[in-house]
Amino acid sequence: MSKPSILQVGPYPAWDQEPLDQAFDVKRLFEASDATAFLSKHGPSVRAIATRGELGADADMIAACPKLEVISVYGVGYDAVDLEACRARNIRVTNTPDVLTQDVADLGMAMMLCQSRGMIGAETWVRDGSWAREGLYPLKRRVFGRKAGVLGLGRIGFEVAKRLTGFDMDVAYSDIEAKDYAPDWTFMADPLDLAQHSDFLFVTLAASEHTRHIVNADLINAVGPEGMIINISRAANVDENALIAALGSGALGSAALDVFEGEPALDPRFLELDNVLLQPHHASGTIETRKAMGKLLRDNLTAHFAGDGLLTPVL
Ligand code: 8YV
């Protein structure tokens, strides 16, 4: 039997590429110099799309694949997949939840600690001889015992809140409704109340058109000049213009960001700011998690073509 044709939107590590190539007839869109011509040529035979969280699959890509049955996302976020186009054609969608939760929460903690304690500057202080020349590194703000807010108490937000409890923090969260699995944390229905409460505001919401710019100028200003916003979700959840303005004026103390509008390009104004920690969208980027994500992506495709139920369906 011939192997099903799949469209691969972005690269994967070699340990994923090899088994993918063995199981499927893989059409590598990311290697094409002319994506439109590539899609016109190969789209008609494609039965599945293998993509990544931040790359997704837009309406044009889906339309170019008339025999498309399933989209498998390497990532928990599927906001970049046009779900309406999928629903209209009964195309299944899968993602890779759970396997990445702990690592994403860990990076959130690392970003908070790194930025609050000025670790990047401290490293430079040692390397460039400032320590020997000028003495003690400037004092920074503590983390433990302060107030934290988690905006979106899903899988990742829950693990973030759990870790914050370990820092003896006063933890509150905001979500559509209070969660019965979070009895120890204060529920605040209004994200603005959460921002006012927070020295550290974690953005852990699954992105959708409903959450776009939910972290707006009012929320950012409510976190305030002593506060920090940590975004490990999607850039679209935060109004970047308002964020850059508040970081520039000091209305917001600092930020730590793993995601950017238009990434991997980013607004050059971020590079001018010394109160923001910039990370290259790698919260799930450990060898262990990426291997698990790759396996789950393939297992979903295999299950689909075997006629079994999808392991982690979105649609
Ligand atoms: C990316 C992500 O998929 O899980 C998500 O939603 O955005 C990430 O895990 C990862 O960076 C690989 O591209």
Account of the protein in words:
It is a single chain. With 315 residues, the chain is of the alpha/beta class. The chain contains 12 helices and 12 strands. It has 2 domains: 5-99 and 288-305, NAD(P)-binding Rossmann-like Domain (Rossmann fold), CATH 3.40.50; 101-278, NAD(P)-binding Rossmann-like Domain (Rossmann fold, 3-Layer(aba) Sandwich). The chain has helices at 14-23, 35-42, 59-63, 83-88, 101-116, 119-127, 130-134, 155-166, 191-197, 217-223, 240-249, 287-306; strands at 5-8, 25-28, 46-52, 70-74, 92-94, 147-151, 170-174, 186-187, 200-203, 228-231, 254-257, 276-278. Strand 3, helix 3 and strand 4 (70-74) form a beta-alpha-beta unit. The site of 2-keto-D-gluconic acid has 10 residues, from loops.
How do you describe this structure in short?
With 315 residues, this protein is α/β, with parallel strands linked by helices. The chain has two domains: 5-99 and 288-305, Rossmann fold (3-Layer(aba) Sandwich), CATH 3.40.50; 101-278, 3-Layer(aba) Sandwich (Rossmann fold).
